[in-house]
Every structure is written in structure tokens, then in C-alpha cells.
Amino acid sequence: MKWEENVRRVTPYTPGEQPQKAGIIKLNTNENPYGPAPGVAEAIRELDAEKLRLYPAFPEKTDLVKALAEHYQIGTDQIFIGVGSDDVLSMIFLTFFQSDRPVFFPDITYSFYDVWADVYRIPYETKALDADFRIRPEDYRQPNGGVIFPNPNAPTGELISLDAVEEIVKNNRDVVVIVDEAYIDFGGISALPLIEKYDNLLVVQTFSKSRSMAGMRIGYAMGQPPLIRYLNDVKYSVNSFTMNMPALALSVEAVRDEAYFTDCCNKIMKTRERAEEELAKRGFVFPKSSANFIFASHKAVPAREIFEKLKEHDIYVRWWNKARIDNYLRITIGTDEQMEALYRALDQIV
Ligand code: PMP
After folding, report:
1. pLDDT for 95-113, tens place per residue?
2. Distance from C-alpha of 138 to C-alpha of 148, rounded to nearest angstrom
3. Domain boundaries, the chain
């Protein structure tokens, strides 16, 4: 058809399956197996439908931004909020990656980065992880149009040190550097303190993993006020009110309940430790994970086969038919009971 010449064509990002079948064990999209803080359920009961007739507050005036500012001890003008960190990252690509030079990110990383680059026509170049799936900071020294990487990286779970992050930021003062910390709360050290020192650094986090609110869609970026102002300018030029009122009200409760948050993250890290032992016992190898998932390969049985057989047991994990990683499974850390069911199924498969 003639009109198709004028269509923006893209190969979309493919999220992990969201099977609607009851009783399955879902270890495929890094959701938190525990519910959000109890205050969130209470806040749901207290929602006032009458208030929905109004547009939500401007972002910097929301209780959510105020709560985050208080929690992280930064200014409300240092926080940008969005509909999940996907929305935040998408706005970041649109705002800061305007150079003719390529944006750098790892070859094995969050598979949304190249999709945003494509949809916004941003040139990019990937930097190969080393043989142990680690980011090499020295790869990010050539001239570029911006740098983005997750820490810990996804889907490998590998963390780089704060010094390594700083080295990348320091060597790229002419562009904006994004550290995607979707999984930082599972034992990593955040680069947040570096934002005071570097005006070219944005740290992005989410409520979807450690705060158990993937279904609410909330993410945020933190950096110096000029970065946040530029982001808001672009955001207001696309869709001014993206955050809905219930999401804004509920998320505040998740930020305030520090004890529940810490307890939840600790439980997941403990289960992860156990999972490392159990998987190793069954012949799996994997890089050390600092996230709520393990990226594992079996010494004898191909990943695809395990992936498909686990599904027959109603256990879903993630597998990519992609060079370098097609013999790996990304297994989200579930509850202890869910993990036990996984080990039992693996005993029959491998
Ligand atoms: N960054 C990374 C590295 C992720 O794995 C994910 C989860 N798919 C996201 C960002 C986006 O998560 P959300 O939009 O739910 O905040």
C-alpha cells in the first residue's frame, strides 16, 4: 500500500510472557514475589473516586516526589517521575541522545535500549561484555553521544563497582551518562551520591522490582536540576500528565515503609543465595548475581530445552534466542516455596 511508505516502522520490544493461567509459577519477568508494603493496600481502600475528576498535581508538587526527595535526601527539583522506568528511559533517550555520535551501551543488556534508539532514530554502538559477562569501563572512552548501562546489568545480574561507574561518568563529561538501577536494591551500591559531583549523571530506579509495584508503573530519575528541567520540558511536549492519581497516592506508602522494603529485599537475597547452591548442585553455572534473578546455563542440557520443559511443569523462566546468550536462562528469584518447586522440576529435567 502506498501509505505504508510514510509509516514509522519498528521492531518492537518483546516483554516476557504474562500467562493468565491460574496456579503457574512465574519466574520470567523479575517481578517481586511478595506484595507491596501493607500501607499500599490501606491507601487503596482510602482512595476517593470523587477526586478523579481533577488532573493530577504537577510532578514536582506531588507527594511522591516529596517522599522520594525526603527518602534520598535530595531536592524535589532533582527527581523526574514516569510511568515505570521504561517511560523515564524513553524520555531520557528522546531528551539527551541528540548527537550525531553513537550512544554506547553493552552488547548484552536490557533489550529495550536498541528499540528506543531505533524508534527515535538515534545512532548507537554496542560494547561487548568480557567473557565473564562484565562491563569493561575502558570501552566507554571513545567519543560518543551518550552512555547507558544497567547496574547490576540485565539479564546477567553482574554488578560493577561504584569506582567503575565513576570512571565511566568521569571519562564522559561531554555527554549524559545514565545508570539504570532497576535492580540496585538487591545488594548493589547505588551511584546516587555521585549526582552531586557530576552534572552529566542520571540515576534511574523503579518501583517495579524492590518495591513490588510493577503493576502500578512507576519509575524515576535523579540528577542535578538542569537535567531534570530538560527532561520535564520534553515530557511536557509529549504528554503532560502521565502519572495517574491513584499511582501517585499509593507509591508514597511504598517509599515510607522502609522496614518492609528492607525485609523484602533481604528475603529475596537470602533465597538467591540458596538458589545459587541448589542450581550449582544441579549442574548450572552462572555469573555472581546482585539482582533478583540468576542468569544460568546448564553444563549438559540446552537452555531452550529446559525452558520448554519447565513450562510443562507450569514454571515460566526467560530465554532469549539471541547470539551469546541462547544457552542461558534468566530465573527470577521467587518465594522459597516457588524455588523448591523449581528445583523439583529441574531434578526431573536435567
Ligand atoms: N531497566 C531494566 C534493566 C529492566 O530490566 C527493566 C524491567 N523490564 C526496566 C528498566 C523497566 O522496568 P519498569 O518500566 O517496570 O520500571
Report:
1. 999 999 999 999 999 999 9
2. 14
3. 16-36+259-349, 38-256
Please provide the CATH number assigned to the domain covering 38-256: 3.40.640.10
Cα gap 250→342, rounded to integer Å: 33
**pLDDT tens, position by position, 100-151:** 999 999 999 999 999 999 999 999 999 999 999 999 999 999 999 999 999 9
pLDDT in tens, 234-263: 999 999 999 999 999 999 999 999 999 999
Cis-peptide into 59, omega within 30 deg: no
Atom nearest to 154 CA in ligand 1: 3
* Structure confidence at residue 259 (pLDDT): 97
Residues with CB under 6 A from ligand 1: 84-86, 110, 150, 154, 180, 182, 206, 208, 214, 219
Cα of 39 vs centre of ligand 1, distance in Å, is 24
Q: What percent of the chain has pLDDT over 90?
A: 97
* DSSP per residue, 90-132: HHHHHHH---SSPEEEESSS-TTHHHHHHHTT--EEEE---TT
Across all residues in the chain, what is the average pLDDT?
97
> Residue of the nearest CA to atom 1 in ligand 1?
182
Candidates 3.30.70.580, 2.40.37.20, 3.90.1150.10, 3.40.50.150; correct CATH number of 16-36+259-349? 3.90.1150.10
CA-to-CA dists, residue 127 to 55, 121, 138, 158, 282, angstroms: 43, 19, 10, 15, 32
What is the C-alpha to C-alpha distance for residues 66 and 252, in angstroms, rounded to an integer?
Answer: 9
